[in-house]
């Protein structure tokens, strides 16, 4: 659907995007993440034809955005962070104007716009001036213009920025429904939103792709062990002695517990090792009640911080070489130091 090959963008001596490559497959919702200045907005602007590139290639459904811009743009609907709205128009006037710009056949315009306005739920405000609409409705109108022409790909840059919690939930649900018919690339700083909406997450830092996987798999790539939190009632030394006997535990931490007569333990094992049943059996036989037994996973926020805090490493799932990084073992490939960018 979309192929980005060795994309580079320079502003004078500053490299905003550095040799970036990835593919976007049809029928999925992609989260495009990165800290401020990482290069994600620059990448999205190049993908949509708003910016030129210093080097590289972008193919949209078989068409180069640089060599065949008009043909490539037919397959893209774009919602910038600030929707390009004409405030003195009504939504229906504005969408008809957009349809003409996109060369939608005149006989199809009315039916298409009626369908799109129902999809984004702006039919009831179709004849009100855009300048008098709420922020949420303005965002919906912007989303409607991206849908004009029924493009296969929707690129949405911070679609929920500035919205209240209720509006965010509504736009989030709308994006999920759009993912049933379109391939969606979603840029957002709200990581919980990305976890809830996206099938795939791409994280960019310092102009380079540092991760491209499902939200669930990202934590598995980074963390080379399982972490089990345990709270047990009973004699601390006796319980620790029993836990020490379990094969497969790489590390055992002992902590004071807030619960009277209890001890907190943190158990670390290899990813493929699960000792929960053995722990339960031993504690049951020792008549030591378990008050807490929880397997801990990294949140997308944790993953994001880990991946964007180091400039020298990128994830490469193809290589299986294990290297130490921040005390954890991860699959990584060393790249050029870009600390001066």
Please render the helix and strand layout as text:
Blueprint: E1 2-11, E2 14-24, E3 29-33, H1 40-47, E4 55-60, E5 63-64, H2 69-73, E6 76-79, H3 91-101, H4 106-120, H5 135-147, E7 153-157, H6 165-178, E8 183-187, H7 191-197, E9 200-205, E10 208-213, H8 215-222, E11 226-233, H9 236-244, E12 249-256, E13 262-269, H10 276-285, E14 290-296, H11 300-308, E15 313-315, E16 322-325, E17 328-334
Parallel strand pairs: 3-8, 3-9, 6-7, 7-8
Antiparallel strand pairs: 1-2, 1-4, 4-5, 9-10, 11-13, 11-14, 12-13, 15-17, 16-17
Quick take:
This protein has 341 residues and is of the alpha+beta class. It has helices at residues 40-47, 69-73, 91-101, 106-120, 135-147, 165-178, 191-197, 215-222, 236-244, 276-285, 300-308; strands at residues 2-11, 14-24, 29-33, 55-60, 63-64, 76-79, 153-157, 183-187, 200-205, 208-213, 226-233, 249-256, 262-269, 290-296, 313-315, 322-325, 328-334.
Describe the structure.
The structure is a single chain. This protein is 32% helix and 31% strand. It has helices spanning 40-47, 69-73, 91-101, 106-120, 135-147, 165-178, 191-197, 215-222, 236-244, 276-285, 300-308; strands spanning 2-11, 14-24, 29-33, 55-60, 63-64, 76-79, 153-157, 183-187, 200-205, 208-213, 226-233, 249-256, 262-269, 290-296, 313-315, 322-325, 328-334. The strands form 4 sheets. Strands 6-7-8-3-9-10 form a 6-stranded mixed sheet, sandwiched between helices. Helix 6 links the parallel strand 7 (153-157) and strand 8 (183-187). The radius of gyration is 25 Å and the shape is elongated. The protein starts with a strand and ends in a 7-residue tail after the last strand. 34% of the residues are buried. Mean pLDDT is 83; it is low at 311-341.
């Amino acid at each position: 659907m979309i192929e980005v090959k060795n994309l580079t963008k320079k502003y004078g001596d500053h490299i905003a995007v550095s040799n970036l490559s990835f593919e976007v497959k049809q029928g999925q919702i992609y989260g495009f993440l990165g800290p401020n200045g990482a290069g994600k907005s620059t990448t999205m602007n190049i993908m949509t034809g708003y910016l030129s590139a210093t080097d590289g290639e972008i193919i949209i459904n078989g068409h180069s955005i640089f060599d065949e811009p008009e043909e490539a743009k037919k397959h893209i609907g774009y919602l910038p962070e600030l929707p390009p709205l004409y405030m003195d128009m009504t939504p229906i006037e504005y969408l008809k104007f957009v349809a003409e710009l996109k060369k939608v056949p005149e006989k199809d315009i009315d039916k298409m716009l009626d369908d799109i306005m129902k999809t984004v739920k702006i039919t009831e405000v179709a004849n009100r001036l855009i300048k008098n609409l709420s922020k949420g409705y303005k965002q919906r109108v912007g989303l409607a213009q991206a849908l004009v022409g029924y493009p296969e790909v929707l690129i949405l840059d911070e679609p929920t920025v500035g919205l209240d919690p209720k509006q965010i939930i509504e736009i989030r649900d709308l994006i999920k429904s759009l993912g049933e018919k379109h391939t969606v690339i979603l840029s957002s700083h709200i990581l919980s939103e990305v976890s809830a909406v996206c099938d795939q997450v791409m994280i960019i830092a310092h102009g380079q792709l540092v991760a491209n996987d499902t939200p669930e798999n990202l934590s598995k790539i980074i963390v080379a062990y399982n972490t089990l939190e345990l709270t047990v009632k009973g004699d601390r030394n006796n319980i620790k002695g029993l836990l020490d006997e379990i094969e497969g535990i790489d590390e055992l931490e002992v902590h004071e517990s807030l619960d009277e007569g209890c001890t907190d333990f943190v158990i670390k094992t290899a990813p493929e090792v699960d000792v929960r049943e053995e722990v339960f059996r031993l504690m049951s036989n020792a008549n030591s009640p378990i008050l807490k037994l929880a397997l801990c996973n990294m949140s997308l926020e944790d993953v994001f911080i880990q991946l964007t805090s180091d400039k020298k490493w990128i994830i490469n799932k193809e290589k299986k070489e294990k290297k130490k990084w921040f005390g954890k073992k991860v699959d990584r490939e060393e790249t050029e130091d870009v600390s001066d960018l």
